[in-house]
Amino acid sequence: MQWGQIKTIFIICFLVLDVYLITQAVVNDNENESIVITSPETTSIEEKLVEEKINFDKVPKESPKATYISAFWHTFTEEEIGQLEAKGQKVAYNDGMVYAEFEKPVPIKVESTPEDITEIIGSKILFADQYTFHHWNKDENVMIFFQHYNNQPIFYNNGGLLMVFLNEKNEATSYFQAKQEEIEQQAEEKEVSRPLEIVEVLLNEDKISEGDTISSMELGYHTFWPVGGVQAFVPTWKISVNEAENVFYVNALDGRTININEVEFLTDIREEANNLKALLELKEEMEEQEETEEEIEAEQGE
């Protein structure tokens, strides 16, 4: 048997093992869920919020159904990279990640709506319909898009992300992209924690206080357990307070808060992008060197 065949068999075996481990972890987590909700009745939660003068008009009344999902990193093909190069983009890619520079800077108006931004950027990338615009981080001057599953975003996962870099003129100049594929449910769907119970968790942990307003709540997913090339994600509530002045994430199945440091996350992604950018610059230098050598050879042959 050739080495290539043996290597393929090993890879398949490890992937099967990864999926098995994720399945077992999900089963164990379901059996050991710690319920941190304290109020037995929704009305008592409402009374507490009214007493604290917390506006919860935007809190959903119903509890949707959801469950754990798993996914694999997508490896970009030469054909897909060729589609970007056909748009005039300079591209570097490695291990399921793409860094690309636009042929010309793309103007983005400060007053642009999420729909405007999605349309402008979406026409220039691969798999645009699989990403949702999250927000524009003005401090870092980057625009963040999350990949979604069933129209629900996968929050802050470096394997399902589109991050667009802008210059001082608010022009998009380059971007980093990674994508999850073969997304599948790993257990039967069930009702997640009631939205009001999640708000109570934040209140009990002093993350919201008297006079605050719950601006919005959105159900998505967050990384539960990464295993090699396979990752598992848990249903997660995103809660925006006081018009996104503060944003919190809570595990929608067991009520545990999830700590997310956006600055650290963006720093890690920027480092990955810079590594790919260095590869792109090296590639360009080598191409220029080859062109110079060909010109010299042509002159010597005349």
Sum this structure up briefly.
The chain is α+β, with helices and mostly antiparallel strands and 302 residues long. It has helices at 3-31, 42-51, 78-86, 114-122, 195-204, 262-301; strands spanning 65-66, 69-73, 90-94, 97-107, 131-137, 142-149, 152-155, 161-166, 171-178, 180-185, 190-191, 214-227, 230-241, 246-251, 257-258. The strands form two sheets. Strands 2, 3, 4, 5, 6, 7, 8, 9, 10, 12, 13, 14 and 15 form a 13-stranded mixed sheet that branches. A two-stranded antiparallel ribbon has the order 1-11.
Question: Can you walk me through this structure?
Answer:
With 302 residues, this protein is an alpha+beta fold. The protein is built from 6 helices and 15 strands. A hairpin with a 5-residue loop joins strand 14 (246-251) and strand 15. The protein is 35% helix and 32% strand. Strands 2, 3, 4, 5, 6, 7, 8, 9, 10, 12, 13, 14 and 15 form a 13-stranded mixed β-sheet that branches. Strands 1-11 form a two-stranded antiparallel ribbon. The protein has helices spanning 3-31, 42-51, 78-86, 114-122, 195-204, 262-301, and strands at 65-66, 69-73, 90-94, 97-107, 131-137, 142-149, 152-155, 161-166, 171-178, 180-185, 190-191, 214-227, 230-241, 246-251, 257-258.
